[in-house]
Amino acid sequence: MPQEYQLPDRVYHMPFELIMLAYEKRFPKCDMIPAFLGSETLSEHRSRDKAIHVIERRCKIDVDAPYILKKMCGADYVYFIQKNSLNRRNRTLHIVATNETFASRVRIKEECSYKPHPENDNWTIFTQKATLNIINFFGIEAKVESLGLKAYHKNIKKGKEVIMYYINELEREGVTSAPRWTPPSEIDSDSDDDDDSFASADEEQALRDFEIESIYKLDSDYITRELGDLSPMEECSIIQLAKRLKQTFDKIPDERVLLRFLRARNFEIEKTREMLIKSMAWRKQYNIDAHLDFWSPPDVINRYLPGAWHKTSKDGRPVYVLRLGHMDVKGVLRSVGEEALLRHALYICEQGIEKTKETPTISSWTLLIDLEGLNLRHLWAPARLAMRRFTEVMEQNYPETLGMVLIVQAPRLFPLAWTLVKGFINENTRRKCLVYAGSDYLEEDGIHSYIRTCDIPDFLGGPSKCGIECNGLVPREEYTLSTEEVLSHEDAMQSLYKNVTLKKGEMHEVTVEADADSVITWDFDCVLGGFQFSLYQRTFSEAHCNSSLAAMVQMAGITYPSTPSPTETYSDVLVDDGKIVDYIEGDSVQGSYYVGKSGTYVLTWSNTSQTLKTQAIAHKATFLYTIEMIEPKDYAGSVSSLTSSFSNLSPAGSCWNTSSVASWNSMVSR
């Protein structure tokens, strides 16, 4: 399939006639382009009034290709036929170059034009495009295409430098201007028209066709000013994508958006186009273009989501600060629901896009996340699933808007949290994350490297007032959704959680086969009544046949009509630092256990009166639970950081922790 390449228009702030003098100095050989080894004139014609000049040259090109490839192809050089048609009357130069070498296997066509700028006829605009069609090339078509593009882009980059070099050379020779063509009075006008009609009619039509095909124009000066220093390939990709979109849509996103989507798809035009069309449809469906105007955050979000825009980074990116460790994610979700929280996230993204427009060449922002206070409550499974959905929406519709993510005051719990969420964050975004544990962000290579000292927020020890309020936990009276209602909104959540009802005296247990250095995590909500929860290590009297099933969880669990009696085949012992703990209706628990020794572990929930002291035994106890196993190879952190992690923001959590290096951490919220 032929590949088309169109470059941005290049503008010279000099008249057409002076540019033509500089252009002609490139021939027959240009030392500034080493690959251009020389040229010979095949034919040349000038009209009698000197208005039309048509010249055809055979150009010799040295292709930067491996020696073995050149020998395989039987050619050390490549020859092109270049036809230049200069019309001084209309002040245009139309250039067409096609390959002579391997013409039956590869077809290359490049078209260029010089003409006066439409807004200022003392300036000159240069337009360039090319097509490459590899028909059959000894089975190495992809390699040839790659080499061809590499050479093409390399020469493109040199193009403007060459013209300016010869402009400067003309100045050194004392030439700073050139007269425009005027018809000589002694030549009969009729004979003049007859004389140059052979060239002008065809060439002017070809030039008109060339300009009509260029349905999308982009100025190289605009690119440098608004998008930054891009490679020729990147510039070409923006134009190609815009042209493809223009075939279907009257209105398309601006170049900053095109560039962001291209970067997200590694500049593959068709993949980018498909992604962008889906995003455009999504924006239309949900009226995102008007989101900044109509969205009004619920009062709970205003009071309990501690985040705000704050200054800019050293490279000019807007900075959004989120004090996530002080945010009651679970409370906010149960108060306003996932949809409202997603809408607010979109609102922040739209704000960010508007802020980036204030600074040329900036198309992304910096996210500063403060994790002081991060605890197990933040690992609530519905919150993680909501984050997954948010991440998917952002990556599909706001790609490459995050320039950098600075994570500060990461506690010892962070490796566990990162392990649980990193799977749905793409690799490109993960590479942009810088994590500072504790007070490391104050070191010489800390956030001072990215944010000016005068702009560092006051809560991080800086002088800049941030104005973000941290109002703690959302009061239960603000809740509008139960855990079950939160789960009912997503099929993934419903399949993740298991619903269990225990009659009086019954017990439910889940068996986990775990390898050493793995981590068991649990998340459960007491919906009705009360129960006890505990974690045991099971020891078998004989060799256990399930050793090959390490790191597996029997999520279905087993419900017993009463507490099983001890057997001779195994014994259960509470894990280190573990206790049998009472929970009541409304409690929500998130916990983890670091496995120091391979074996079988049992999580139990029991509705018995033996130890339940917090309330009278209920006829029924209903709860929702989910369990996850993190294997050693998947854990993103050190064991020492995990085994010492514990957040004491909730007093109920302390019942699981009797030492600073406990391996069992659990947190309850009511």
Rg computed from alpha carbons, rounded to a whole number of angstroms: 35 Å
Which residue ranges are poorly predicted, with pLDDT under 50 across at least 5 consecutive positions?
190-194, 546-551, 638-662
Largest sheet: 8 strands, antiparallel
Helicity, as a percent range: 25-40%
Q: Please, how many helices?
A: 17
Average pLDDT reading:
82
- Which percent range describes the beta-strand content? 25-35%
Helix vs. strand class: alpha+beta
Report the span from N to C terminus. Answer: 63 Å
For the secondary structure, the number of strands is 25
* Oligomeric state of shown chains: single chain
Which outline best applies? elongated
Descriptive overview:
It is a single chain. With 670 residues, this protein is of the alpha+beta class. Helix content is 31%, strand content 28%. It is built from 17 helices and 25 strands. Strands 1, 2, 3, 4, 5, 6, 7 and 8 form an eight-stranded antiparallel sheet that branches. Strand 10, helix 11 and strand 11 (365-370) form a beta-alpha-beta unit. Helix 6 crosses helix 7 and helix 11 runs parallel beside helix 12 (381-397). It is elongated, with a radius of gyration of 35 Å. 31% of the residues are buried.
